[in-house]
Amino acid sequence: MIYEALSCLTSEMNDYLKLKLSATEDKIVLSGLVNPDGSMAVQGENKVLLTLVNLEKETATRKTTIPNKATDMNINMYVLFSAYFGSSNYAEALRFLSFVVGFLQQKNVFTRTNTPRLDKNIQKLIVEMESLTSERLNNLWGTLGAKYIPSVLYKVRMLTYDEAVLREFRPEITGVGVNEPS
Length: 182
Hints:
Pfam families: Pvc16_N (PF14065). The protein is built from 3 helices and 6 strands. It is an alpha+beta fold. It has one domain (2-163). It is globular, with a radius of gyration of 18 Å.
């Protein structure tokens, strides 16, 4: 469910940027920021990384009680959009971050009606910008183990987590290669 929600957001934003900028390549990448060894997790530069940084249980919802059945749990996801552009391309990083904010300002609710690619098990996603104090921002980047780059944090609300609809993700096989002896 988490992957489906975030990959949908990534695809929607890439479609928006391709239309807005007449671009051909994806600029938004669903990825962590750094590998365990401290190196950047994404090859190349000039991308906006969408990174899940936290999950929390939504406590403001009503609970339904069904005997002998665990109730669904609503969770909120905190996602960080980080503009990973080269140092000589700082202005472009800010430009792309502005596109992210603009897109999520004009479309902050995702339903199957306005987002046909939204997984059928997800009713709605509500996206809200989060404000961080300098101290919280410093703690976030320190926890991530990365140097600060231009970024914005969003809360994605109310993903209903139901274990019954979880499924294994298997990447699509795009080709079969055979290594011939040389």
